[in-house]
Amino acid sequence: MISIKRHSWVDWLGKAMALTGALGLLGMAASLSTATALAGSPGGYSLSTQAYTASGLPSAGGNTGAASSKAAPGDYIYDTATVSSGSYVQSGSIEFELFQGNPYTGCYDLGTPLLQTSVPVSSTEGEGLAGRSESVSGLSAGADGYYQIPADASNGSQYFWVATYSAAGGTSVSSPCGSEPVSVQVVLPQLSVTTQATPTTAAAPFTAADTATVSNWPQLLADDPEATASVVFELFSGTSCQGQPVAPKVPGKAIPLGSAGTAQSPSGAYTITRPGAYEWLAQVSVNVGAGWPQIQPFESACGSEPLDSQATTSVSTWSSASPAEVGTVAQFGSQLADSATVEGGLNPSGTVTFELFDNASCSGTPVYSDSVSLSSGRAQSGTYVANQAGTWEWEAQYSGDDFNTAASSGCGQEPLTVERATPQVTTVTSSGSQQVPVGSGISDSTEVSNQGTPSGASGDVYFNLFAPDQPSCSGEPVFIDEQALTVGPDYSYATSAQFTVDHLGTYSWTVAYDGDANNNPSSSPCGSELVDVVQATPQITTTTQSQVVVGSQVSDEAEITGGFRPDSDASVTFGLYSDASCTQLVGQTSTGAVNAQGDAFSAPVTVSWPGLYYWEDTYSGNDLNQTVTSNCQSEPVLVTKKCPTVSTVQQTPVTTAPVTTVSDTATLSGLYPAPQGQSNGQVHFELFGPVAGSSPQCPCQGSDLVAQGWVPVTEVNGQFQATFTDQIQHPLLPGNYYWEADYSGDAYNRPASSGCGELTVVLPNTPAVSTAPSSGGTIGTVITDTATVTPVVSPNPASGTASQPTAVADGTPDSVHFQLFLNDPTCAASGLVANLGSFTQSETSNPDGSITYTVSLPASGYKTVSSGTYYWDVTFTGDDYNTTVSSCGEPVSITTPVGHVLGVSTPNTGSDLFGTGLLGSLVLFLGGLLLLAGRRALRPRTR
């Protein structure tokens, strides 16, 4: 709470006001006329404030109200303050206080504030420049900064704000007391008045009155005993409330505004003697007490309470029907109408509503209603089609107008009997045609039309079908079917079940309708719908092999569909043709009977030439089915060449020779034989090699072609074979050779190949070795040996042709190696006494092209040093074309002479050939072994 005694400037202001008297009071009043106050202090601070009013609670911290010194009950009020200084404003706080009362008299004793809140403010540090103004603002709004005016606040009651700024340095400044009043102003709502006439319509003369109800005044007025309302009533002729009223103003009594919120005021009574339209109008005046805003007079809305005074009228009617029967009887489907005359009254206008009921009591909803304006007192209804048999009734209702009362013709004045209609029955067959094939399922459809009535007939219809032997539709029908009618918008309809016709001739449909409540029975005449049943036209579809190889047997299957009993005494004739027009018959035609499933089968036909063949099948037909023939090109058969296989017979190994003979035989399996006198084709043989290893390599792998040639295919003991033989005029290098046999094909067979892979092994030549040793003797005898190797195959001299490639020499010199064994006929290593080495042979050509090698040891030979039996071992080292061969076992006997003294040398010294001593013998022996081992390592193996 802020006391005015706390502030020296407030004391000064009070003293000044006391001295100035009336002038001070006028100044204070002037300061209260604005919502903004300004205060200054010796410290250089000034404080300005501004009060705000908001209709709702503003958002926290937001200044969303309007600057105002007035507020209504329920409004929220709050205050703002701004502190200013010529230099800068220090930090501090602004304290807001709200007081209630009259600020003119309450500033000396403020009492307890209604609201008190303090808002901190931050200083704005200035530069100290001359003339600079700094300011900070504080807003009382916040959790405690709003005050809501009570809902029962008195009109004119006042509140006022006081704001005090306290700086951090101790300086403070306050807004003047009473500088910021907020007055409560109650807004009165808009009052309203409604009226209620009694009565609103009556035939003249009659007494009329009105009652006014005033609504929507607030409780504040209800609590004011000086607030009253008065009502003045006026009655006008017409509906515009213009001109002079038909009677002087009729004042109502004063109405106290009670707490119920409404009040009523009755008018006086007025007698209306003349028919016409009238309108009541009520004018309200409200008197309020002192201090309330004045309420302007108001009145009820013109046209809200019409009053009609009318003359009494009556209605007479007469009905019509087209076409009409005698009296009050109408045909079903007639056009019904009614006419009315309004009698009495005062120039009646308005409308007549005609209602047509399908019963005599006019009960329920009318089936037809039509409102027509009166013309010269008369009205004519539209027409309605009578769609139900029975008794009908018209009733006419006159609407009345401003001067005439409403009237009715009443029920029972115009009874009308509508008789049942006789509908038309039309039929149409389901096939849409008057001709169908035998075996068809036929049905009938009917339409029952009611001579133009909008609703169709109901009930059942009976479909009758008569056989060809009943042209007059007499006797029993072959088919009867009962169906319920489906009611449509223009006609009723039904469709019979299907019946399968199994005889040729003309059938006849009739339809009988049994009638319903609105329709008489009716039927279609015999002969109006005929169905001619003719032979069926079946379809023939065929099934055969689409592709076979030449020499196969083909057959055909025909299926007869779409006919009627096609298996009865019917067959299919099958023909196979070699042309697309089916003129070149292959073999003979065959006939197959049609079975119960409609199938027939041909006899098999052998096709002996590749190409396209065509089946054409003819169904014979019978009494119920026509003859039909399949399309020639619809069933082609492709006959292709056979695909034989080629196999070859592996040769036994071949030994190379100066002239080598090679041969291969190919057998063709699955070959289709050509006719007598025609070729079965040829086989092309190719021999490739030699090949290293065991994997076949043919031309695509780049191996050498050794031999090739074409051989015709012939039949041998029931097999088709071709055998190729060739003599190669040079030795073949031993190794693996592979054959490939390719069949050329012919007019009946496709080409085929054995592929590369049949192996022929070429072995090296194995010559014979013979020896001719020198004779024996005593110890010290020199022995020698001569070896003959034959035949030896050599590729030299080279020769060849394009088909017989030139042979290539192996390039390894052949030699003969001599070894001597003592007392060892097996030539084992343990008996070796001399390893005499290898010697190049001399060559002699043989007539067949082979070579004989002859090798003799030098005359120095071997000088024996021991007695015993010596054995020569001669080894021919061979080459790529010849195997290594040895000859062991020719004995040479050496004896000891009489008186001979045995030496100390060992038998295998070899001193005569390589010098004396153990070292020479060892060198000779080891050298021989190494040479022999090397030659054997290089010697080709037999493949």
Which labels suit this protein?
mainly beta, 6 helices, 45% strand, nine-stranded mixed beta sheet, seven-stranded mixed beta sheet, single chain, 943 residues, disordered N terminus
Verbal overview:
- It is a single chain.
- The chain is mainly beta and 943 residues long.
- It is built from 6 helices and 76 strands.
- The strands form 16 sheets. Strands 24, 25, 26, 27, 28, 29, 30, 31 and 32 form a 9-stranded mixed beta sheet that branches. Strands 14, 16, 17, 18, 21, 22 and 23 form a 7-stranded mixed beta sheet that branches.
- It is elongated and about 205 Å long.
- The model is unreliable at 1-38, 125-133, 798-809, 903-925 and 927-943 (pLDDT under 50).
Low-confidence stretches: 1-38, 125-133, 798-809, 903-925, 927-943
- What's the Cα radius of gyration? 73 Å
Residue-averaged pLDDT, rounded?
79
Which oligomerization state do the chains in this entry correspond to? Answer: single chain
Helix tally equals 6
Shape annotation: elongated
- The number of E-state strands comes to 76
Terminal-residue CA separation: 134 Å
Q: What would you call the structural class?
A: mainly beta
Q: How would you sum up the major sheet?
A: 9 strands, mixed
Query: What is the strand content?
Result: 35-45%
Helix content: under 10%
